[in-house]
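F.,

This is the one I mentioned.
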């Protein structure tokens, strides 16, 4: 199991060995295979554009030599002679070639990177939705969201810029070294000996800058997390009067980001100042040495100009490698995290919606024991046995933490039992197709979560191919049509994030309508009417009665009025079934059930569940 991180800690970029880097690079290149022709074309155009760039200093040197007083009026390039006008036309043509090749390279790279990013996003999101519940129990949503945004954006940036820029700078470096080596060996040695120490210093500075840049980004991410969590729980913040506390917490994260940002800015300023100093110092040194060679007649002034330009090209190329390699390394680190998610074992779901799904009606648990993966030492259910016949209405009651919600999770096969057997119509749940189980089991949860779309979209989530008439009919049966009709946009009303624009009773009725539309033969009903007003409770009770008709129903009970609709009651306590029977039988025993009833009578007529 992955090590748990602190509340706001961001996952650091992994440090990779050479073999790991090669493996991650191969993984990323697999996404380029569908675009190998376009990528090869972009690579070819990049090489052409870079080669043209490398030729310019030599041509500028020729121009200087020709325009000097007393010099030859013709250019001699590769054994061919050109007039000044012809040379200007050739230079213009080369500039046009460079511009056109650069444009089409950018277009190809943009097309490739956008498509690759879309592939990765879709593949990663589809994999996330297919992962089992135990996976989500061990990870924060913010971390997974970061994978779909930050990590993939980093990969896109590298594929669209860093890789081919690395190739371009390599061409410039190699071409520049070849040109200056052919001009003058003394100056070449002078440049090649002076550049590496400068690059080494630049690499050290680059590492410091990247370290503080990463820490600054992490501080900003922590501040953003505080904003997100505080606003999502704004009612709790106000209820407890913690506005100042949250403000101070946010200021602390922001101040940390400012502190780190200033340190990073100081390092960047020092680095830029050093580069400017080193660059001009190097130019002065080359001019000094080259001037001596020009004075002695060993090289021409034009050759010295060309040499200076090539020296700057080489220095720029070598200086850019540190940043480019750092970018690629961070991308490969992000690739590790992406591939970890893609390598997670998904649930065994069919690729297409199954047809003619068999109807399951009965449920049986034989000596089922289960503990959550992160708490194996404390089983949530122990030795549970239940035999639920087709059409039965059974209630499950008990105090908080007794195992009722765990039972609902197992029946939907969010988890598999550690021991024992769960079967539907005599078939082991492990042998049934997972889509068949989920199709046959429906749930109306206590904590209603709606999507941020319209009311109609939320109801249709129960059956995506339902017609408008089917949706309206489900709303009527759920007693939701009255309040929907009172809304200005009716079914097209946007419910807001998690349905916050609707009241609790309205959200509950939307959830019941969704379950009615799904029409599952086995229903898990975690009713939550105890906090509703009398009118809303009455409407929901009526809707639940309709929903329970002709179904096998398991009610995680909160209200005595609902329990009385059930023909058998199971009382859970600390993961075990401690009592079983009808309402009257259990009251007569004066056991746990009777005690729970007695506790609730002072607050209403319900049973805490």
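My design for it:
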């Amino acid at each position: 199991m992955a090590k748990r991180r602190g509340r706001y800690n961001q996952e650091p970029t992994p440090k990779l060995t050479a073999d790991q880097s090669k493996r991650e690079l191969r993984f990323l290149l697999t996404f380029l295979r569908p675009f190998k022709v376009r990528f090869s074309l972009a690579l070819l155009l990049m090489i052409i554009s870079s080669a043209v760039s490398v030729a310019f200093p030599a041509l500028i040197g020729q121009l200087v030599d020709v325009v000097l007083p007393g010099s030859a009026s013709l250019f001699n390039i590769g054994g061919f002679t050109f007039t000044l006008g012809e040379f200007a036309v050739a230079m213009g043509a080369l500039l046009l070639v460079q511009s056109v090749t650069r444009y089409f390279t950018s277009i190809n790279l943009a097309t490739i990177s956008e498509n690759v990013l879309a592939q990765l996003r879709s593949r990663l999101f589809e994999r996330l939705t297919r992962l089992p519940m135990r996976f989500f129990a061990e990870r924060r949503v913010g971390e997974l969201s970061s994978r779909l945004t930050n990590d993939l954006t980093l990969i896109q940036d590298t594929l669209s810029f860093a890789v081919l820029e690395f190739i371009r700078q390599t061409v410039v470096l190699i071409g520049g070294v070849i040109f200056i080596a052919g001009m003058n060996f003394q100056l070449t040695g002078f440049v090649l000996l002076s550049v590496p120490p400068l690059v080494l210093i630049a690499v050290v500075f680059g590492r410091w800058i990247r370290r503080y840049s990463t820490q600054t980004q992490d501080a900003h991410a922590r501040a953003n997390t505080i904003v997100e969590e505080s606003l999502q729980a704004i009612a709790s913040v106000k209820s407890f009067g913690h506005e100042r506390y949250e403000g101070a917490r946010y200021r602390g994260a922001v101040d940390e980001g400012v502190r780190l940002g200033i340190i990073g800015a100081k390092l960047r300023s020092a680095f830029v100042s050093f580069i400017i100093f080193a660059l001009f110092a190097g130019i002065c040194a080359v001019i000094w040495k080259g001037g001596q060679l020009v004075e002695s007649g060993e090289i021409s002034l034009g050759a010295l100009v060309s040499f200076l330009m090539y020296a700057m090209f080489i220095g720029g190329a070598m200086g850019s490698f540190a940043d480019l390699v750092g970018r690629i390394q961070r991308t490969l680190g992000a690739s590790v995290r992406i591939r970890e998610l893609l390598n997670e074992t998904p649930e065994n779901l069919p690729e297409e919606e199954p047809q003619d799904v068999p109807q399951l009606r009965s449920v049986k648990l034989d000596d089922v024991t289960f503990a959550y993966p992160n708490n194996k030492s404390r089983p949530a259910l122990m030795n549970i046995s239940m035999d639920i016949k087709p059409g039965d209405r059974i209630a499950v009651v008990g105090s908080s933490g007794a195992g009722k919600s765990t039972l609902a999770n197992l029946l939907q096969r969010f988890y598999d039992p550690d021991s024992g057997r769960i079967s539907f119509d005599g078939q082991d749940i492990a042998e049934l197709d997972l889509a068949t189980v989920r199709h046959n089991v429906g749930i109306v949860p206590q904590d209603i979560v709606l999507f941020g779309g319209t009311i109609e979209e939320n109801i249709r989530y129960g059956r995506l191919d339902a017609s408008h008439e089917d949706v309206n009919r489900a709303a009527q049966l759920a007693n939701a049509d009255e309040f929907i009709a009172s809304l200005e946009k009716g079914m097209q009303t946007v419910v807001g994030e998690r349905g916050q624009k609707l009241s609790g009773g309205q959200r509950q009725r939307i959830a019941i309508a969704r379950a009615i539309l799904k029409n599952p033969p086995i229903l898990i009903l975690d009713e939550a009417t105890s906090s509703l007003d009398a009118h809303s409770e009455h409407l929901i009770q009526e809707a639940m009665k309709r929903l329970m008709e002709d179904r096998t129903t398991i009610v995680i009970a909160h209200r005595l009025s609902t329990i009385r609709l059930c023909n058998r009651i199971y009382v859970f306590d600390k993961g075990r079934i401690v009592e079983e029977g009808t309402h009257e039988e259990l009251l007569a025993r004066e056991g746990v059930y009777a005690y729970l009833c007695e506790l609730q009578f002072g607050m209403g007529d319900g049973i805490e569940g």
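The chain has 19 helices and twelve strands.

Talk soon.
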